[in-house]
Amino acid sequence: MSHLAVADQESAAAPIAPIRQSVVALGQITKSFGPTLANTGIDLSVGAGDIIGLVGGNGAGKSTLMRILCGSMWPTLGSISFAGEEVNFADYGTAEAQKRGIRMVHQELSLCANLSVAENFFLETPGDSASRPGWRSLYRTRARSALDAVFPGNGVDADAEVGHLSIAERQMVEIARAAATPGVKLIVLDEPTSSLDLDRSKQLRTFIRERAKAGLAFIFISHKLQEIIDIATEIVVLRNGRTAWQGKVADASIGKLVQLMGGDANPVHQHTVSAASSRDILVRLAGPLTAELGRDIDIVRGEIVGLAGLEGSGQKELLHAIFSPDRRQSASVIRHAEAGFIAGDRQKEGVFPLWSVLGNISIGAVARRPALGLVSDRANRDTAADAADRLRLDDKRFQSNITELSGGNQQKALVARALVADTPIILLDDPTRGVDIATKQDFYRLCNEIARGGRSLIWHTTEDAELLACDRVLVFSGGRIVRELSGEAITESAIVGASFTQPAHKHAGAGRKDAAKTGLARRLVNAAPFIGLATVLAVMIAANPAVASSFGLDLLLMPALSLVLVTAAQMFIVGGSEIDLGVGAFAGLVSVLSATLLYDQPWLGALALVAALAAYAGLGGVIQARKIPAIVVTLGASFIWVGLGYALQPTPGGASPEWLSALFNWSLGFVPTSIILIAAVALISLVIDRLPLGVVLRGFGNNPTAMIRSGWSSTRYALVRYLIAGLFAGAAGLSLTAINTASDINSGNSFTLLGVAAVVMGGCSLLGGVISPIGAVAGAVTLSLIGALLGTLNVSSDYNAATQGLILVALLTLRSLTADRRSEQ
Amino acid sequence: MNALATFSLWAQRNRWVWAAIGVLLLWLVLSVVTNRFSLSSLSGIVLSASFLTVVGVGQMFVVTTGRGNIDLSVASVITLSAFVALLTIRGQDANLAIGLVAAVLLGLAVGALNSLLVVGLGIPAIIATLATGYVLATATLLSNKAIPGFAVSPALKDLATGRVSGVPIMAIIAILGVAATSFVLRYTVFGQLLSAVGQNRAAARLAGIRNGPVIASAFIISSVLASLDGLLLGAYIGGAFLEMGQPYLLQSIAAVVLGGTLIFGGSATAVGTLFASILLILIVTTMQIIGLPPGAQDIVQGIVVIFVLALAGRQAIVRRSAADPAGNDGAATSTAGRPS
């Protein structure tokens, strides 16, 4: 590494002359994570109109450096200055970075999938909306023109929900959004072309060149060196957290960059083909997956097969299909032996954070034993020791918690897990992500040994260099295998070339037909609350025509009002992917407060109501700030609300203040008051939801990380969400008092769960982010009519609860059958 | 100082110790202050706590499956089981076996239904168990109308209220159950699988674990234990009444969390649940002795749950950031070193 340090200083000694105005400069940035240094003394200066190509292998420190630049992480040491003015990192954060004109397009896209393209534009630059009606059309126009400016002829609909767009379209939206930000001076593009086809990629580069002429600066991160050479004015190469080279594009070539990144410096492996000559077939790939090749692919004992292609072209899907072939692709994938899995995303799919290293290794063997068998540390240790030995993993560290290990050693533990599981097939999902060079070398050597020992390895990697080590490489495009390379034919250019092959879109049409079918089913399920309400009313009117009169409807629907209000409250909570189990009790408490304190001493009563509301909103803040499960907290809070109510009013009683009764007891004559009030609740929640505020709340329900990146405060909006819910729940409490002309602390209890049921019936998603006020209100009315309906049908009211429960189960079942399964079990 | 450090390290791995210390302190204070506390009064508290422990241990299995899973149907199961016991046993010892079978079958049926909804249909646990609770509520109302009377079989009554040389039989049952549960969690494959599934579901699946059956068995264990608990509780109070299971909903969750089982799943302690159950009953008893109104008792219980969770939530945050050296979210900003 010493020779690199020399190169580093040489390049630092000849800085690029700052002819143009400087936008931002990072000085001597060092960032440590415990013992590992992610960045060491990196200088980076960006001038107006610069296009800096930032390259480096995985784990070279690019992401860390960009996070520091964008204010989402502080360095251990170093400085940052804007146009020569130095800024203290303590005052620097994502919001400050945005204010100073830095925008980043993240690799893992940060759009809210439940919002429209235009609404996502709003989230990034909320300033101009001013909540006036028609704010959407402003952002629609802006989205349209921004998209057309970068990608002419893109055909993306500004009103389309982002979740319905293809990955490439989402990437285009994200790039256009960053480019259209007013006052932007520097745009960081992290692998912007990873899912764009060649034409779009060219459009993007043309756009970048034009804007750079006008003075906008870009940092362009890409593994596609061809693109970097084509677009950049300057290139910065990082390696092991240091600047390996920095200079004009004219002085660079692909070969040089590869060498600087350490690409060919490590002969990855010397796998001998002889080991793979066995005809013992372990996996056969067939069907539509290999249709492009026109023949099946067999994977035999002793070979390493690499899966290549642009990210998200189907490589991961194949790994998972081989791992559990009983999924949809069963026809395409046939597995003849057990398979083990080594995940590269260690945090999400690999480690068990509560366990020691030993526990994390031995689970591989334990998982394959009968559930009632006994486990002992000693037996586990014996099995694991052998595997750890081969991995050069120190068995003195067996008792350490897995999270105390470096990424590389964690990865070794995961390999050891696969070894103790002793499966003939091992699937690797980008296993060297974020692993240091030395461990990588260990890793490659080990994989060779494993393969030579008679197992087959199927290896998905995002580092094309690693593919050179495979016996065979299958290149993916659009979910199909489009090319099979083997031996000498495996070169980076061959892989990249094949990655852009367009597979014949035969199955796209069928997919669309399927989508239309499920779309229809989903629409039917969404209409269920209205169909249900109509049915219930029709049955009741048929049984008793007097129901249809204004008075009859009022009698029926007035008691539904309180549930409708509680449902509206619950709906906003559910929109944030939480559930409030205390909302009914809170309504009961407000009812008690209004019938006692508010009746006797209006000022004190009003004060108590405000205090209760503040406490309720504060609860939301606590849940968000402490990251604790809302369900349990609100369940605990429900005891507090009920306890307070009991303390104030041990037995039902009190009286409704006159003005409150008057609020609910007026008449327009022909239209029942209750219908007007219920419609008003639906309208108010609809308006809140359509306001910019509602859009922000839904954004948080769907993708809080993206919201925080765009500069929104999660705790503040948790408070706002609970405040809105509290207002609705409070109104429900007041309506209880007015309708019953007295209060009972238990009067709201049953509403809590009915509210959840109504919200779900109405079409809101419990995962958050989807709100449908009208459906929820219809659901609430239907549920509250169940009792009366059973009465009309001469069924005992004992069946009330069961009917409600069964309706809930039936609807959820329908919903889970029609919706795509987003979360895996 | 060094001993203190050793203890705090040990206590991190044995979180049940805090609930045990709480029981000890509260009991000591009460004995000194009131003069009314003795070992026999403690045994009365342990007897009440045993009923909570049984349902708490079941709840603990469900909580340990992670993702905020909670069994909201336990309260309805307890109530319905007490009614079913009255219906099947009819006060005759001869019918005891039928009653026991009925209780187990009820638990199995509810557990299977919950599993079907949660594992099979992917409905969130809280909604699924909520809906099950609705259905059970109707079943309870119907059996309330059908019960012949409030006679309890003498043998069952002895089991629920009797003592062996001063120690309540129920307490012995609960302690044996807790010991067996601790063994299962620590030394069997199932215990390891449960912990793995609760910690990281994706990783568990990729490690070769079939998550569905593990989660389903947690729900079945919870329902069966709640059902048996209802049978015994009915015998203890000498009958059954609507809503008799209701207090056990929050208390069972509180006992689990207070005992040191992680609310995010993956780590369970049966001993902690036992001590936390005793602690909770002790708190309620104390409030009754002081003469706090029932409303205030509710408030205190609610506050205890929220307070403990807020503290435990902090631990989880620390743990997560430690598990994530790359610190790829906003939380890393606050812990990152400042530039000099």
Oligomer classification? heterodimer
DSSP helical segment count of chain B: 15
Strand order of the largest sheet of chain B: 1-2
- How many structurally independent domains of chain B? 1
Characterize the largest beta sheet of chain B: strand count, sense, and whether it forms a barrel: 2 strands, antiparallel
CATH topology of chain B: ABC transporter involved in vitamin B12 uptake, BtuC
Largest sheet of chain A: 6 strands, mixed
Q: Kindly, what is the distance between the CA atoms of the first and last residues of chain B, rounded to a whole number of angstroms? A: 33 Å
| CATH hierarchy class name of chain B | Mainly Alpha
- Spans where pLDDT lies below 50 across 5 or more residues of chain A: 1-18, 272-276, 506-512, 821-825
The gyration radius over C-alpha positions of chain B equals 21 Å
List the helices and strands and how they pair.
The complex is a heterodimer of chains A (825) and B (340).
Chain A: H1 2-13, E1 22-33, E2 36-47, E3 51-55, H2 62-69, E4 77-82, E5 85-87, H3 94-99, E6 102-105, H4 117-124, H5 135-150, H6 167-179, E7 186-190, H7 198-213, E8 217-221, H8 225-231, E9 234-239, E10 242-248, H9 254-261, E11 281-285, E12 297-300, E13 304-309, H10 315-323, E14 333-335, E15 339-343, H11 346-350, H12 357-366, H13 377-390, H14 407-421, E16 425-429, H15 437-452, E17 456-460, H16 464-467, E18 472-477, E19 480-486, H17 492-499, H18 506-543, H19 550-557, H20 560-575, H21 583-595, H22 597-600, H23 602-626, H24 630-648, H25 658-664, H26 673-690, H27 692-702, H28 704-709, H29 714-740, H30 749-762, H31 773-792, H32 799-818
Parallel strand pairs in A: 3-8, 3-9, 6-7, 7-8, 13-17, 13-18, 15-16, 16-17
Antiparallel strand pairs in A: 1-2, 1-4, 4-5, 9-10, 11-12, 11-14, 18-19
Chain B: H1 2-13, H2 16-34, H3 39-64, H4 74-89, H5 96-120, H6 125-146, H7 154-161, E1 163-164, E2 167-168, H8 169-187, H9 189-199, H10 201-206, H11 211-237, H12 247-258, H13 270-290, H14 294-322, H15 331-335
Antiparallel strand pairs in B: 1-2
Helix pairs in contact in B: 2-13, 3-8, 3-11, 3-12, 3-13, 4-5, 4-6, 4-11, 5-6, 5-11, 7-11, 8-9, 9-11, 12-13, 12-14, 13-14
